Amino acid sequence: MKQRPPLPPFTYETAIQKVQLAEDAWNSKDPNRVSLAYTVDTEWRNRDTFINGREEVVAFLTKKWEKELDYKLKKELWSYTGNRISVRFEYEWHDHQGNWFRSYGNEQWEFNADGLMQRRYASINDVPIDSKDRKFI
């Protein structure tokens, strides 16, 4: 299995680096690129959806970014210990009708020894916004 540095156990510096790498990957809006950060048998809960394995991750993200247009994400390290990291995040996007949203959430991440994420649990809420109120342009 290929390693995905930085590896656990995390320090403050390596946890910050892991969060930034995740933010960069998700902002690429490339489902295949994003999926490579996860174990082949990764387990996710994303809102009310349960996802198992990289193939389902790719399918989920493909559908997500077909709906969430001009997606822009910011992540912030909340806490870390051993092989786990918690983040808070917000992202903005619009639908096909031009309605803008800011989505807020928290994620709990668990990594294997090779630095691949084996578990991701995300709680997310969407708030309608006016396009003039966007933060991430």
TrEMBL record:
Q: What is the lineage of its organism?
A: Bacteria, Pseudomonadati, Bacteroidota, Chitinophagia, Chitinophagales
**Per its UniProt record, what InterPro entries does this chain match?**
DUF1348 (IPR009783), NTF2-like_dom_sf (IPR032710)
The family database entries (SUPFAM superfamilies) matched by this protein are listed as: NTF2-like
* Gene3D superfamilies, sorted: 3.10.450.50
Name of the protein: DUF4440 domain-containing protein
Q: Could you tell me which species this protein originates from? A: Niastella populi
